[in-house]
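I am going through a labmate's work and have reached the protein record below. What it holds is a sequence and that sequence's fold in token form. Please read both lines and tell me whether the tokens look consistent with the sequence. Do not assume that whoever made the record got everything right. Thanks in advance; the entry in question is below.
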Amino acid sequence: MISSSNSIDAHTDEKFAPDSLQTLLVRILSGSDTIDDSILYFPRSIELRLITNNEKAEIFYSLKNTINEIGFLQYHQPLLFNSSTTLLAYAILPSHIKSTMKELRLVKIENLFDFQIFCDERRCCQSSRRYKLFDGVTDNSETAENGNDYLCLKGSKIEFWVDFGIKRQVNEVKFHLYVAETKNLILPSILVEGSENGYEFYPLGQKRFSVTFNKSFWVKVELQPAKVRYIRIGFYNSSQSIENDCILIDEIHFDSKEEEF
């Protein structure tokens, strides 16, 4: 981990309480399954790890803050951004063959130490979507009901991993979703699991929910009492038409009442 004076330590700074975590906005634009021409936009300080399918690939970032200002720097893991930046990421193999994107990993989001998205369909990380992560339950009902405002969960199984950095008692999780009208989507389900060490997970709550088509809606999963550091959230979609159907999500709210430092 690259140390930086701009990194935020949730263990020592009380002003970053769980309910003070601000919006994270990530926009991923990609027209193919390669890293080339993928643009990532971050509105505030964040660390990024970009993993490819070839360990020998050299990864470069092009930072473009204004039309006339372009800078290049070689990949370091992780890379820290301190302000709004438009980022062009691409990978070059020794044979000059482009490398495909394997995993996008966000590290150290304020007091949320690690947040990852794993998809069984790589397209879910290549759509033009904005993803916003909130900590604390605050209904943001004015959110525009527009597909481009959401992260597209396309595939039969998508997992979110969250590392709080400290143990928390999380009482419930709320999801803000949008689903276009379809006859193929069969009662998706959400499974929330917890862990103290990041290796052994046990169920905290599960819910199979009915879909409200063409309108955003909330799904709340109440959890059994447990103090955990890691949360694993699994979306399971039994649609028979994965190519056309997906669940759009733009907010996850964690209601945590207690912390241990």
